[in-house]
Amino acid sequence: MSIRLHSEGAAGEVTGSKHVLTVDGARCLVDCGAFQGKREATDKKNRALVSDPESIASVILTHAHYDHCGLLPLLSKRGYRGNIYATPATRDLAGVVMMDSAAIQARDAEYLAKQAARKGEAFTWKPLYDEDDVIAATGQFVTVSYNRPMPIGDGMKVELFDAGHILGSAIAYVHARDRSGREVAIAFTGDLGRKGKPIIRDPSPIPPADYIVLESTYGDRLHESSDDALSKLADAVNRTVSRGGKIVIPAFAIERTQELIFYFHVLADKGLIPEVPIWVDSPMAINATSIFQVHPECYDRETHEAFIKHHENPFGFNSLHFSSSVEDSKRLNDYRGPAVIISADGMCEAGRIQHHLIHTISESANTLLIVGYMAANTLGRRLRDREGEVRIHGDIYKVRAEIEEINAFSAHADYQEAWDWLSGLDLERLKKVFLVHGEAAGLAGMQSFLRKKGIKEVQIVAQGERYDL
Ligand SMILES: [Zn+2]
Q: pLDDT tens for residues 77-95?
């Protein structure tokens, strides 16, 4: 008779989320995310997956980010036939994310095969999974709305609470009972969001838990206040439009793009920005936006007040245009006059954003607006660091556009915000907090912060280590 926890990803790092709750030998997997980072090393880690997928009892998915859902198709391909529990919005968004990954992997395989052929080398790399595996995994979802307790097998029950991170994101509150009748309540925060984010609700409180598995991405950092995102956005647009320039915004297709659309809609409604065309130029962002539109059950009260009450669509207004075809995208390059262009990917490493940069980055009238994290060694980081010239598609471009940064958009709670959530709970029953989803500094920062706040037992989870509950 035993109840145990261990992690096979996002332990001591921020990607590859996979946490396993084992009750009398039956395993429940919380998230099945892909590792991201240096290609060869992560490929190997992703292929290792988890042992005996066919004997896993159940899977819970907290939200649709790739580092949480990205390996579900591989799990399915390796023999998992059970249910995948998630909110309806997470199921829909995860479908887009997983399908996008299958398409990217297929293109990578083609490209690498050609390269190898040119060099006369043997080529053996295969995608982790293909579109059929994505379809199979999508067919295994069982959707559970927020606050609807759901039995998920012998002695286990899950209830999903809003995590306030991205559309559909959930804290998984799992109730487990072993054969001896011992009961344990354990909450997995997934990625914990922040108060006051547009569109979605704030992180929800949860019932008393014995254990909380807490993410620690920003365990050693505090964010800028999100209050002035709107005015900074308006300033950047007004300044650029007065110069007759374009505002180019690299943004990931899910959440950040919809937040920007939402903010631009608010600014346009209030007359705080001039009427200029706003283009969303990313097929995946367009798909994701249509999913946002059909999940009003995830919106916060402000979104209802501002739009739904007035029978308005928060993600559609006169100046907003979507371009899905390559021809549309190219036409944008020839467009003269002020405009806003939102395109992916968020770190400028691939995708249509690179074409927009080629056409705008060397003119001082234009603005490159950075609204997300730019990892080291990416084109986005070089631009953020205001390097004088950058290489795109093999050519060198002088950087003369204004580079402006708004840091208020983060989707992860910092340590103070995590504490604001945690300290609002009934902690009487709490025995231990397990820390995951952080780099060494974040984990150590969160651990010492929580101890200072009076939580004695704070365990940094080590990859593969088993913890008895
Ligand atoms: Zn996330």
A: 999 999 999 999 999 999 9
Distance CA 397, CA 433 (A): 49
Number of Cα atoms under 13 Å in the Cβ half of residue 73: 26
Residue whose entry in the numeric block shows the structure tokens 């283009």: 279
Distance 19 CA to ligand 1 centre (A): 15
Other residues' Cβ atoms within 10 Å of the Cβ of residue 421: 24
Measured distance CA(140)–CA(426) in Å, rounded: 35
Q: Is the pLDDT of residue 163 over 70?
A: yes
In this predicted structure, the answer to whether residue 416 has a pLDDT above a threshold of 90 is yes
Q: Is 79 exposed, middle or buried (0-12, 13-18, 19+ CB in 10 A)?
A: exposed
CA of 217 from ligand 1 middle (Å) equals: 10
249 CB-near residues (< 8 Å, 6+ apart):
260, 340, 341, 342, 343, 368, 369, 370, 371
pLDDT of residue 377: 81
Whole-angstrom distance, CA of residue 52 vs CA of residue 55: 6
What is the whole-number distance in angstroms between the Cα of residue 20 and the centre of ligand 1? 18
Strand partners, 398: 389
Burial category of 38 from C-beta neighbours within 10 Å (exposed 0-12, middle 13-18, buried 19 and up): exposed
Residue 27 C-alpha to ligand 1 middle, in angstroms? 23
Q: Model pTM?
A: 0.92
User: How many A from CA of 133 to the centre of ligand 1?
Assistant: 22
* Digit-coded pLDDT (tens) for 91-133: 999 999 999 999 999 998 998 899 899 999 888 899 999 999 9
Average pLDDT over residues 388-402: 95
Measured in angstroms, how far is the CA atom of residue 61 from the centroid of ligand 1?
Answer: 11
Q: Is the pLDDT of residue 438 over 90?
A: yes
Handedness of CA 21, 27, 28, 33 (dihedral sign): positive
Q: How far is the CA of 63 from the centre of ligand 1 (A)?
A: 7
Q: Is 157 exposed, middle or buried (0-12, 13-18, 19+ CB in 10 A)?
A: middle
**pLDDT number for residue 227:** 66
Q: How far is the CA of 35 from the centre of ligand 1 (A)?
A: 13
Q: Tell how far the Cα of 65 is from the centroid of ligand 1, in angstroms.
A: 5
**pLDDT, the chain, mean:** 94
Which tokens go with 131?
């579109």
Ligand 1 centroid distance, CA of 344 (Å):
17
Tell me the backbone φ, ψ of residue 85, rounded to 5 degrees: -90, 130
Please name the residues in contact with 54: beta carbons below 8 A apart, sequence gap of 6 or more. 78, 79, 80, 81
The conformation of residue 298, written as its DSSP 8-state character, comes to: G
